[in-house]
């Protein structure tokens, strides 16, 4: 039987498995191959009754590995706006440098003009970063079908992420007293952060503790937070005199018994569960 072993890292095991094994099962359903996670390595063992199925499954695993190594957390719009913001930042720095040189040669008027241009470039840079943050948050959340009880902060600068987190949680707190929301916050483990920049997870924890939220870090950088409603409104209760809807009773003769098909039990196909070696 054709088989293939693909080496992966410990971090990539979770990406290949997916939540509740959903990603791995999806690959098996699409390709017809069987995938097992081998602890020794670790590695993904792919087997099938046909070499083409093994190749198809391997291609999907390799794509997951590539995405994990070089993840796209910004999306096309966010990436473009970030690039524009960075270019404006470089422009600002050059203008300030030129202004300094002009002052050194005694051209104060020319230096002042360059400083003014540099400040404008800085304002434009900040505006682009704000636009990028909105686009990135949308790309990682709403564009992926996530609702109000989920917030993935990947791709955001720490200040942007924390500001958006506060806004989203404040919105959940507007729900009536007595109604709480389980809010999933993805701060990330910092695997793709630059040295010294792995601060978002810690900042998120500090904020949750400061606010007194009940939370659990279910995996590194992923928090499940219980957000209570604080609105002055209360959950609606039945008014006095309200009655539950009634249903008309049927006579025994009017109740039709469903016809059973003797072949129904045998017509159902049996589902086989995949073997996932951990």
UniProtKB/TrEMBL annotation:
<dbReference type="Pfam" id="PF00013">
    <property type="entry name" value="KH_1"/>
</dbReference>
<dbReference type="InterPro" id="IPR004088">
    <property type="entry name" value="KH_dom_type_1"/>
</dbReference>
<dbReference type="InterPro" id="IPR004087">
    <property type="entry name" value="KH_dom"/>
</dbReference>
<dbReference type="InterPro" id="IPR036063">
    <property type="entry name" value="Smr_dom_sf"/>
</dbReference>
<dbReference type="Pfam" id="PF08590">
    <property type="entry name" value="DUF1771"/>
</dbReference>
<feature type="region of interest" description="Disordered">
    <location>
        <begin position="232"/>
        <end position="278"/>
    </location>
</feature>
<protein>
    <recommendedName>
        <fullName>Smr domain-containing protein</fullName>
    </recommendedName>
</protein>
<dbReference type="InterPro" id="IPR053020">
    <property type="entry name" value="Smr_domain_protein"/>
</dbReference>
<dbReference type="InterPro" id="IPR036612">
    <property type="entry name" value="KH_dom_type_1_sf"/>
</dbReference>
<dbReference type="GO" id="GO:0003723">
    <property type="term" value="F:RNA binding"/>
</dbReference>
<feature type="domain" description="Smr">
    <location>
        <begin position="151"/>
        <end position="228"/>
    </location>
</feature>
<keyword id="KW-0694">RNA-binding</keyword>
<dbReference type="InterPro" id="IPR013899">
    <property type="entry name" value="DUF1771"/>
</dbReference>
<dbReference type="InterPro" id="IPR002625">
    <property type="entry name" value="Smr_dom"/>
</dbReference>
């Amino acid at each position: 039987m054709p088989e293939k072993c693909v080496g992966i890292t410990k971090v990539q095991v979770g990406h290949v498995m997916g939540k509740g094994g959903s990603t791995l099962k999806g690959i098996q359903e699409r390709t017809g191959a069987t995938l097992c996670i081998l602890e020794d390595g670790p590695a993904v063992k792919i087997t099938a009754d046909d070499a083409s199925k093994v190749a198809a499954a391997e291609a999907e695993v390799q794509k997951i590995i590539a995405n994990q190594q070089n993840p796209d957390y910004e999306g096309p719009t966010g990436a473009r706006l970030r690039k524009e913001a960075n270019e404006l930042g470089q422009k600002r720095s050059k203008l300030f440098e030129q202004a300094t040189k002009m002052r050194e040669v005694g051209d104060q008027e020319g230096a002042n003009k360059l400083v003014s241009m540099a400040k404008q470039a800085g304002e434009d840079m900040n505006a682009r970063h704000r636009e990028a943050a909105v686009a990135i948050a949308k790309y990682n959340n709403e564009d992926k079908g996530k609702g109000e009880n989920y917030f993935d902060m990947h791709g955001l600068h720490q200040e942007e992420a924390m500001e958006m987190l506060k806004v989203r949680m404040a919105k959940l707190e507007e729900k009536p007293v007595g109604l709480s929301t389980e809010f999933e916050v993805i701060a990330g483990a910092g695997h793709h952060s630059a040295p010294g920049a792995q601060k978002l997870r810690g900042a998120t924890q500090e904020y949750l503790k400061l606010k007194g939220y009940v939370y659990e870090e279910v995996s590194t950088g992923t928090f499940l937070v219980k957000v209570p409603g604080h609105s002055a409104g209360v959950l609606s209760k039945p008014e006095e005199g309200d009655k539950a809807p009634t249903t008309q009773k049927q006579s025994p003769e009017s109740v039709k018994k469903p016809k059973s098909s003797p072949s129904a039990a045998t017509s159902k196909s049996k589902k086989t569960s995949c073997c996932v070696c951990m």
